[in-house]
């Protein structure tokens, strides 16, 4: 019999209050999964008139998913505050105090453009330590601004043909599939490992003309196939949901890129550091891969704001190292 999520936590030796929080996240995601499965029948499709802090039009399911996670997670006894793609500021659950606790960050519904067309979407989450304070005080956004290396746990849930939770407690990466018959999360992979070499890349190629030279060179070399400098043919996949694209990579290898591009030169990238890139970077590193932000390891990036954007290149180690090398060479004087 496969291990359930609860049994795994019981065997993991993890802090019981962290387990309480992660089980709450899993319950929120079960509810999102149920809403996703109902689709048009459940009146969850379509856009709202509102925009989120990123200036993006919110979909009904973005807002529903945010509320479902807030409701499921807020009772967790040591959760201090929450940051979300769908909320401008932080959501305080309790005060920072001598007891410490956890911060939770999430992108409640990743891949919004896929919702109405019945293509895979997901939820991404990250847990950071909350500071301790001798006297009680409000949590601040500055408290959240910790590098990705500080994450205690991270994961995502992909709502695809199956609902699958992929999780790391910093000791490898495991997958649990939600059994629609019993409603139980069952372990379906106990040690996900990303092969270091790959022949598959994932990027929105419609932006090619806007990319920086190293990214363009990397993709051109892949496209040149077995007669080019790479000496092998590559395949390309783009789901337009980072969760789905990264899930493919943790299952069979590959490299995912959403790099800086010249459409908005002052913006580091499209994706958000704290609740998209960092949790994925931790999962990918824990599965033996690597994550690069155009300058260094994503997990070493020191955040300056909650909704900060970042350039993302992650997946099979050899490919990410190649991208890092191309970026370093581009900086060298001719
Ligand atoms: P959002 O959740 O706001 O829809 O963003 C999705 C992200 C990411 O999941 C995906 O890889 C990327 O945006 C897709 O962007 P393009 O539409 O530019 O391809």
Range of helix content: 25-40%
Distance between the termini: 61 Å
At the first level of CATH, the class of the largest domain is: Alpha Beta
CATH fold type of the largest domain: Fructose-1,6-Bisphosphatase, Chain A, domain 1
Secondary-structure element sequence?
A: HHEEHEEEEHEEEEEHEHEEHEEEH
Q: What ligands does this structure carry? A: 2,5-anhydro-1,6-di-O-phosphono-D-glucitol
Pairing-aware structural class of the strands and helices?
alpha+beta
Q: What oligomeric state best describes the polypeptide chains here? A: single chain
Low-confidence regions: none
How big a fraction of the residues is strand?
Answer: 15-25%
Strand order of the largest sheet: 4-3-5-6-7-8-9-10
Number of helices: 8
CATH homologous superfamily grouping of the largest domain: Fructose-1,6-Bisphosphatase, subunit A, domain 1
